[in-house]
Every structure is written in C-alpha cells, then in structure tokens.
Design a protein that fits this description.
elongated; 6 helices; 211 residues; mainly alpha; 0% strand
C-alpha cells in the first residue's frame, strides 16, 4: 500500500478510527468500574489498554514511514494531525487504566464513595465519555458539529471538576468521607478531566483540518 501513498493514508485513517473504537470500549468499561469494582472488568480494561498500545505503535510506525514518501503538502499536514490524534487517543486509554487501578484501590481498602460522591462522579464520567464519543465521531465523519460538541462537553467537565472538587473538600472537612475514598475521588476527577482534555485536542485537530 505504501506504493500508493494516498491509499496508504486513507487506510491509516480508518485504522486510527478502529483504534478509536477500542478506546471507546475501554472507556465504557471504565465508566462503571469504580462503582462495581468488578475484577473481570479491571482485567479487561488492562487488556484493552495493551491492545490500544500495540495498535498505536503499529499505526504510528506506518504513518511515519508514509511521511518519508513523496506526498503532497496537504497529505503531510494530514499525517501530522493523525500522529497527534493517535497520541491523544492512546492517552485516553492510559487514563482508563489509571481509573481501573483506582477501582482496585477502593476494593483493597474496602471503601466506597459516599452516595453524593457516587452521584457526582457518575455525572463527571458521563460528561467526559460524551466528550470522547463526540471527538471520535468528529474524526470519523469529519464533522465540525461533533467537534464543537466535544469542546462544549470539555468546558462543562472543567466547570464540574472545580465544583465537585470544592464540594468534596467540604465533605472531607465535615468528616463525611473517609480518607482513602477521598483521595481516590480527587484522582478520579483529575483523570476524567484529562480524558476530556485529550478529547478536545482530537476535536481541535479535526477543526484545524477543516480550515
């Protein structure tokens, strides 16, 4: 395929979308794992994350080979965008693995978030997963509208993180929340917010191709 760079680039783009869906599967598993602490799901997230690492390495190598060929300026730009998007997708799956490790911590400490904490974390998780889902859609369908929705969700995630963090500090101060669960809650907020950051990066790459 590398003999026809145009086709090679298209196949790299569709492989990246395929990897993007593996990341979405990982996110879907990570969505509930802090609440269920299901050991099978924790293992599956780790497996999926390794699969994403392998895909990312393979596609990146291929795309770098492709960039050494005689390709147009526009194709060079597409290659640069693709490498950035691959890196952002891979980071999202890394954060899913981090979240599965938080689930293990909760399990080992035999602790849970408070009811209010669970409700708030679910809210954060939904917004951040939505931001990635829209980013993947924007990438796959070259859609400006989905990219804009990603950015909206990422802004919402930033606001939520600030609000939930201060609520949480209040609960800790009032002694309504245990120390172990409290630390996990804060870490989870950070990881979720970073997932939405990387989703926004993907959306912005898509938008910059459009301009």
């Amino acid at each position: 395929m590398l003999e026809t760079p145009g086709i090679a680039l298209q196949s790299a783009i569709s492989e990246t979308a395929r990897m993007g869906y593996v990341v979405l599967d990982t996110l879907d598993k990570a969505k509930d794992v802090m609440f269920t602490k299901d050991y099978q799901d924790i293992l599956e997230i780790k497996d999926l994350e390794q699969k994403v690492d392998r895909l990312c390495a393979g596609i990146t190598d291929y795309v770098i080979k492709l960039s050494t060929l005689t390709i147009s300026e526009r194709e060079h730009q597409e290659v640069a965008h693709l490498l950035q998007i691959l890196s952002d997708m891979e980071r999202v799956s890394d954060y899913c693995e981090n979240i599965s490790e938080l689930a293990e911590t909760l399990h080992e400490c035999k602790t849970d978030f408070t009811e209010k904490g669970i409700e708030q974390m679910r809210q954060m998780v939904e917004v951040c997963i939505d931001s990635y889902r829209y980013a993947l859609e924007a990438f796959e369908k070259h859609e400006k509208e989905s990219a804009m929705k990603t950015i909206e969700k990422e802004t919402k995630a930033d606001e939520l993180e600030i609000a939930l963090r201060s609520d949480h500090m209040q609960r800790m101060a009032n002694g309504q929340c245990g120390m172990d669960a409290g630390i996990v809650f804060m870490d989870a907020l950070v990881y979720m917010e970073r997932i939405s950051d990387h989703s926004r990066n993907i959306a912005e790459e898509v938008l910059s191709v459009h301009h």
